[in-house]
Every structure is written in C-alpha cells, then in structure tokens.
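Model: Ready when you are.
Researcher: Fold this.
Model:
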Amino acid sequence: MKKTVLSVLLLGTCSFANAQEIKTVARDLADEIGPVDLQSGVTQRQAGVIAQFYCRRHIAGCGPVAPAVERSSEWEVTPFTGIEGAPGKDKIVVSKRSGNASWGQGPALDVLALIHSAGAAPKPINDKAGKLGDPAGPRVKVQFVVSPDGAAADVRFRQSSRDPNCDRRAGRVVEGWRFPPRAQPIELVATLGCGG
C-alpha cells in the first residue's frame, strides 16, 4: 500500500525565537496536517486543518471552522465569518482522496502541490536580536510576510500565548527581524516561546 507522507507535527521542540522555528506557510501546513495515507483518505482532523488554512487564506473575515462532516468521498466544513461569527452558507469541501479544497466561488486549492512546493524558510540576518524565554513558558505562533527589502511585515497572530505581554513582545521581535533581500515576498510562520 502506497502512502504519501506530508509531515509530522513537532510543536514544542524549541522555545526561542530563532531561525529553526521559522517555517514557510506550506511547511507549517504540512506539519499541521501530518502523515496522509491517500488509500485510506484524508481524516476528519486533517480535513479540518485544510479547511482552516483555506478559510484564513481565501475567505474574508474568517474565524474558526466547524468540525468536518463526512459526505461520501468528501468532507464538508462550515466556516464562521464576521464579528458575530455567523456560519457561512457555502461549505469548504475537502476531497478525501486528494486533500484538495474548494469553496463556493473561491479558488480551488491543490494541497499536495502546495505542500510539495515547500522550500526552506529564509533565516533572519539578525536572529540573535530578541529571544523571548524558556521552553516551559507560553508559546505564540505568528504569521508574517518577508517583503523584497527583507523587512518582516503584516504580522498576524495564528495562536495566542494567552498572555498579552508575551504576544506583544513576540510581535515586536518578529517586526524587528530583517531577512536577506529577495525577488518576491514570502509568507512565513514562527513559533516563539515567552517564558519568564
């Protein structure tokens, strides 16, 4: 039986904000999805991860998503949007056999192609500036864009530490990073620790 392995999630292995914790968005998605056996199909949990990624990327005002509901060869996932968190009329559809996702009039997302395109994340040239804390402390996950001039911009929190001071410090650390100049912008994800 042939298996397509996407990756295994390994959160919690490091706690400092350094280049080893910075990933491309595609690599982060692969880690969150974990191994996929396309013979058995995408699991309910994996469909939920794919749908949440699709929602964040393609649906305005995206919030959480409902658990995936099995429909023959697909999973259907309801996104919640807007300030009031209203359920969307259109469902995000995730194929069990390919992991591909679609939604209403939105674009189709070829998940396996995206994941297989995942290259190494660039490292900040000033990564020693701004380490936050120890492994036992709260953790925050931040998504950001590296612009062609190497600056970190559009910093958004993917997962709060539940400590506002930690979140603020993590945002400042990421905003202070500088990367080598590049031809095109790239989206990255960093997990930072904020222990005492």
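Researcher: Now this one.
Model:
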Amino acid sequence: MSLQKSATFLILLWLSLLLVMTPCFAQNKQEHQQLNLNYQRLKASFQHLNIDTLEQIYVDDAVYISESQDKDIIIGKQNVINLYQTFFKKIRHKKARIDIDFRVVARQISANQATDVGYYLMRFHPDAESGDTVSEFAGKFVSVLTRSSDGHWQINIDSNTRSKPEYYYSAKPVPNWYYGQQFMATTQSANQ
C-alpha cells in the first residue's frame, strides 16, 4: 500500500470514529445541561423566595443532610420543602433578600444516577433601612441525583457543610459543568 493510500485510509478511519463518537459527546453535553438546570432552579428559587421551583428539583423520598450539628437528617420531599419554607419566611420577615450560586468541581454520571460535588456561595442582603451590610456564607455540597421516568434529573440526596468563601472563588470551571458566575470576590472575603 502506498503512503498516500495509507494516509487516506487513516484519515477516513479517524473521521469514521469521530462520526460514531459525536452522538456520545452530544448526549453527554445534553446530560450536563439537564443536571445544570437544577442549579439554575435553585438559584431562582432563592432569589425569588419561591418554594414552587423546589417541588421540581427533589424526588419524593429525598434526603437532606444539613451542615448544622443540631439538626436531624431530613427525609422526604415535603420535609425538605418545609425546611426551605421556614428559611424563606425568615428572610421575608427581615425584608431581606438572598442570592446563591454554585460551582461544580466533580461530577460522576452513570445511566440513572449522578453525583455532583462543589461549592456554594450565598449573599444575604439586609433591608436597606437596617443599616447592616451584605454578609456572605459559603459551603461545600454533595448532591446525588436520579433520573426520573420522564428523563429529568432530580435530587435524591443533598448535603452541605460550611467552608471559606475563597474556595468557591478559586474553584476552576470544567467544560459543561455548572459554574456560577454571578459573584465577584468582595473585599471582605478576599481579606479572610
């Protein structure tokens, strides 16, 4: 076989492999987009203090493990929703608002289960009349998601712990994984 025929054969083989693998990459990107949608929903839910959005995110037998040492493990979607409801009521009562965002740093996906690990950052904006300044809280999270019968990803297990905001800020983006960009480092967190 001549050198030209060998090169042509290798190029055709490479293009064939590329065409066969392209649907896998597209499907993988679509999977990531569907998983990332949960972070967008969580973000909107906190921003608008809206429980309805959370109904779509959690499975019926969801488990929530809080960072608080004095809280029990929460089992069941309605109990998780009630926890958020109580938190949102406190924010409304204070006439404040909150923003949250996430950065996924590790993701494992199988046929019907995905695990995301990352950081979150929350900013509490007090009522302007209070004279208080904006405060910032950060943490690490692990979320296990399962694919529902209609193909949507929902949170099955959700856990978090506190961490320093700089870990959120220094997390590096990974292609196709959720990487919140709404927060810039504040002087306060940069000096911690």
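Researcher: Key takeaway?
Model: DSSP finds five helices and six strands in the chain.
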